[in-house]
Amino acid sequence: MTPKSDRPKRIIGLTGGIGTGKSTVSHYLASTYQLPVLDADIYAREAVEIGSPILSAITERYGSDILLADGTLNRQKLGQIVFSNPDERRWVEQQIHPYVRAQFVEAINQLPKQTVVLVVPLLFEAGITDLVTEIWVVYCSRQQQLERLMQRDRLTLEQAQARINSQMPIEQKCQRADIILDNSSNPEALLKQIDAVLKTR
Ligand code: ADP
Predict the structure, then answer these.
(1) Which pLDDT value is given to residue 3?
(2) How many structural domains comprise the chain?
């Protein structure tokens, strides 16, 4: 393991609501500032790969109908279950969050001492705040969030609402932020705020 003193000093926890602009921010931080980005969604996908204990647990709970013909997880079907049933969502999250957390810890330990960005949609919900040294929340209005989410993921209004409602309200996330990036205007305005933050911090 890398000695403690060589671990990254500055660990930015980038969060927000679904569709508020986290990926837009993280792509910019990676491309313009060459910052290493670790993404919770990638680990969450890894967690349920074929042969994983978590995929077995999910199959045991919901039956083999939850799998596609090739044996991979039918995400759409799981989405229908968890976004209409909070208890099931919590159960699935309890399976996946510890794996995601462990992957973050391992990856952080392997990176040299420098700034690193953790993109974590459920930073607060999954209790990952202790891994980061500062929290950035990307904000936009609920109406904008709905519209952007429906368009990006081709969801109906009801589906988009269910996904947004399953998360902590964005206002509560903003209250716990060190930095709020306001993405209620155009992307250029968002990126300018990032430049300003990195100039002063
Ligand atoms: P997240 O990663 O938080 O889910 P994204 O960065 O993917 O959000 O943004 C959600 C969608 O909204 C994407 O399709 C993105 O291109 C679009 N988008 C992001 N910022 C803006 C903006 N300021 N104005 C219009 N569309 C935006």
Answers:
(1) 59
(2) 1
